[in-house]
Amino acid sequence: MSRFAYWLSAALIIAAATLYYPKWQEPNVHATISWDVSGYYLYLPAALIYKDIKHLKWWDEVGAKYNPGPGQGQAFQHPSGNYVMKYPMGQALQFLPWFAAAHLLAEPLGYPADGFSLPYQAAISWGSLLVALLGLWFLRRVLKIYFSDTVVAATLICLVFGTNYLEYASITGAMTHNWLFTLYTLLVFSTIRFYQNPSFGWAATIGLLIGWATLTRPTEIISALIPLLWGVGSWAAFRGRLSFLQNQFPKIALAAFVAGGVIFLQLAYWKYATGEWIVYSYQEQGFNWLRPHLSDVLFSARAGWLVYSPMMAFAVAGMFFLWRDWRKTGWRETGWRETLSRAGYSFVSDEPSQRLGDIGHETESRASQSRASQSRASQDSSHIHRDGTGAEVFLPVAIFCLSALYIVAAWDIWWYGGSLGQRAMVQSYPLWAFPLAYFIRWVSERSLRRWAFVPLAGMCIYLNLWWSHQAHRGELFVSEQMTKRYMLKILGRYEAERDWLKLLDTKEEFKGPERRNVREVYFNNFENDTTCVTGEAPIAGAKSLIMTRETQFSPTYTLPVKAGEKGWLRASVVFKCDSKEWNFWQMTQFVVRFYDGEKVVKERMIRLQRHIDGSETKQIFFDTKIPEERFFDRAIVLFYHPESPTTIRLDDLKAETFEE
Fold first, then answer.
1. Are residues 309 and 201 both part of a single domain?
2. Contact 160, 16 (CB under 8 A)
3. Structural domain ending residue among the three candidates 413, 438, 461
4. Domains held by the chain: number
5. Do 446 and 365 lie in a common domain?
6. Which of 23, 495, 550, 590 has its CA 20 to 30 A from that of 3?
7. Is the pLDDT of residue 564 over 90?
8. Is residue 487 part of a domain?
9. In this predicted structure, what is the pLDDT of residue 302?
10. Are 594 and 526 in the same domain?
């Protein structure tokens, strides 16, 4: 069943990547090599095609042709005068084989060998797809050591169909999260193999994987926790692990040397590019370790992990079952050896009474590495449960998962840019798969639990597929800008009204069937104004309000609204722009404020360009509840046009009060 679940999951990932949304065929900022991916990738064309990794003089031409995102590929100019890549080089090295294949084939296929043409886009996409399938295969192999085949099958289905892993394994697989997911599955697998047979080969592999993960994202240095803590479930096991580190010191030193050598590549690049060994390339971005954004990371509408991947709430609950087993058996000095033995592995030791919790006391232990697949397939998960697997994996899994969550939440840009849910959590899913499998195992023990779980899991799967669709073809998901009110408005729908986009900016919406006691309190057609107006191509009459990059703030227009009035205020304006501004940070803001002296009592706004197509002329309004409980002495309306290169015109500014 787990093999079938793997191929079913693989089919979904392949279909999403190649049929539903083949990203390599998309242009400009929607292409595979765009935005963050172009930053990871930039090392390769800079060093291997253009031979210019310091000055990036070639970028202007490539950037103008392919428009992959921010200028200079998200590199920044160092005080030395040279450009420095924002992102570490680990992902570029993982891209290297696929880049090389594309570079060899580009010209024979009739495409420019410039690093960004279609062969490069396709090669990086397809390479990312193969890496995803590899990672999922090794996750299956690892889970089968600890859980029954049925539980592993259900875990794979829940993870792929029911979480944002689908997005980052298929459509946006070139992001680091997919590749790190696979590195982590290989690391767990290599760790288990190493503790079966502590060889130099497995030690070097572990060092390579830790170094490569760290070279991809420096915070992944926590991957070292996995080989250090795996199988440690008691103080006795911890003492045994310390003994192992001493007895196997040459192998541990080799792993550390390999990891350090891989990480040193980044330091060598910094030294070459800037003359400095250490460069903080993220500039103004950093961590707030004392005030992590934990609630936002978990529950916000903007990018909440459990909001957009509610399936992982079962993994969070499953951590309790891991803890429960650890409490029951964590101080027993058995478990690991029995678990692996039941999974088909055998051990030969000079000390028959030795525990694998103390794996490390032995220096002569050897593993046969032969699999008893039939025995493993028939193994009942409850046996594994009683043999203390929870005791063996709880501490490494819990410590790693909580550390990873804390690091994700501490990052200043906690929503991680254009992210469907919390993309920075995806690489830790190989570890979160353990509590998820534990929860599924617990569910499988009682038929009533199964009857409750199956429809809930089905809803999570539907919701994940719906969000994945809305992030691309459906377009109801608005990356970086989601709000609770907008999310609830569109949830489960496939068509939307344009006015709903106002809820991306304002918290209020008039929902009454009709407005009562409507009273116009302000009107301005700008015919008598002399500030910020133009007579050139006005919308109506002789003049219109005009705003450009040089004129970012309009005059402030006072509205005759008094404290104590009950009801709503509707502000409207006729709006036209020469060309639409697509960057929401630079869209024109239509603002209503209520003041008490110089203190802002309340403010609401909408971004006007959300509500137009191209250069059309349109009347746009939004509603604001007049403050009832807080005093204010004046109300104003203004427009803010933040550094947009586009020119906009406004006319017929109007304000009305009304009641529900």
1. yes
2. no
3. 461
4. 2
5. yes
6. 23
7. no
8. no
9. 96
10. yes
Alpha-carbon gap, residue 584 to 260, rounded angstroms: 42
pLDDT in tens, 404-426: 999 999 999 999 988 999 999 99
Answer yes or no: is 652 within a domain.
Answer: yes
d(C-alpha 517, C-alpha 192), whole Å = 74
Token representation of residue 302: 């903007």
Residue 120 has pLDDT above 90, yes or no: yes
Give the pLDDT of residue 369: 37
C-alpha to C-alpha distance for 609 and 586, rounded to whole angstroms: 9
Which of 157-171, 265-279, 382-396 is predicted least confidently? 382-396
| Res 349 pLDDT > 50 | no
- What pTM value is reported for the model? 0.90
491 part of a folded domain: no
pLDDT-derived band at 239, boundaries 50, 70, 90: confident
Gap between the Cα atoms of 448 and 35, Å rounded = 47
Which pLDDT does position 326 carry in this prediction? 87
* Closest residue by Cα to residue 66 from 43, 90, 107, 37: 37
Instruction: Report angle CA 600, 606, 610 to the nearest 5 degrees.
Output: 160
pLDDT of residue 391: 65
Pair 187, 297 in one domain: yes
CB neighbours of 456 closer than 8 A, spacing ≥ 6? none
Tokens read off for 144: 């089968």
| Tokens matching residue 568 | 């709503």
DSSP assignment of 370-433 equals ---HHHHHH--HHHHHHTTHHHHHHHHHHHHHHHHHHHHHHBSSTT-SS-SS-GGGGGGHHHHH
Q: For 431-456, what is the mean pLDDT?
A: 96
Q: What is the CATH number of the domain that holds 586?
A: 2.60.120.260
DSSP 276: -
d(CA 444, CA 566): 56
The single-letter code of the amino acid at 203 is A
**Full residue range of the structural domain in which residue 179 is found:** 2-461
Residue 417, both tokens: 């840019």
Q: Is residue 494 part of a domain?
A: no
- Residue 70, classed as helix, strand or coil, is coil
